[in-house]
Amino acid sequence: MADVADIIVIGGGVVGCSVAYYLAREGASVILLEREAMGSGASAHATGSLSLLGAEFSPGASFQMAQAAYTEFVELVPELESLTGMDLLYQRRPSLRLALDDEEAGLIKGMMEWQQSLVNMRWIDAREVHDIEPRLSPRIVGAAYEDESAQLDSYRLNLALGRGAELRGARILQRVVTGLVTGDTNSGASVTGVRTAQGDLSCGAVVIAAGSWSTDFTSWLEFPVPVRPMKGERLLLNYPGEPLPVLISSPRRGHMISRLDGLTSVGSTGGRDYDQRELFGGVEFDRQPTESARLELLQRAIDVLPDLERAELVQQLAGSRPLSPDSKPIIGPVPGCDGVFLATGHTTKGIHLGPITGRIIRDYILGGSTNIVAGMGEFLPDRFANFSDSDYLPAARAAEE
To answer: Which of 237, 312, 318, 356 is the most exposed place for a label (fewest CB within 10 A)?
Structure first.
């Protein structure tokens, strides 16, 4: 089989597999390259939370993308489950964004000032919270109640997108990328292929969706790809009590979700939980679970739901999230090299924004532009022409998960 395709996608996480899936669904010839195993990066340890509340999205284009992304799952999940036969453990139910003290209440209410006009939500007091779930801590002062949010298994989503892309005609190859093949045109450089350890592959367009490894492409593109790996950890517990009727999060204590496989997910550590050395220790360092994170996450969970003292720890997951300097994804064409597109830097929202990113990149490659989100300038790579390394730390500290 010839080593040639219309488009080569680099990276086998949820974002890369989404890009491959949406392109292949339109009949494009696609090769997807992954250096390790499918979903071996951030997608393997992600919570799979699909919520519009929290500090990760800001007013304007950011929130518009988040809303479009949330809606995308309503049709995508049954489509993938039917196509692949996989159960993605997808659930849609109300959520509570809990405040255990006045400071958290202030943070939540501050976000509600602009979110309330865009999301079906309202503030409820402690009595109403305990009417919904009596086992929650008596310290709770109130919560934002969201009529619907969602959650699924991120790794299963990753595998389903990859398998779905294959069933639509894409090829998946395990290759280590060593460079890009470019040629000169009247308008400047243009990509013509990808170099790998096993030989060159020819194509008309390349999508870099390599998550925390995306910065490796900076020297080949002669353009900064500003992504740094940010450490995060979460826990899976076997809790003998009844499943929680709502999806729970808190600005200071992370999430608590009863999954459809019977496990309870709690976490996650974010940028606020590490000193700078630990926060940006690198991909291999980030994969190592830590005792300090385990104890911290268990204590946070028990603070919210005291009965979790009866739970058994099943698994501790750790890994990197691809952090951009402003926490927003980097999506779109790379300046100075025709045919190269970035789809990376999603920070803690790669699962939520992965499929919509696939649709956006599909539009750029096949149609030259996209109208899915107005104000795409907020996400285009050229906004980082003059970024500084010092921009990463504030972005990391603002990450809640």
So the answer is: 312
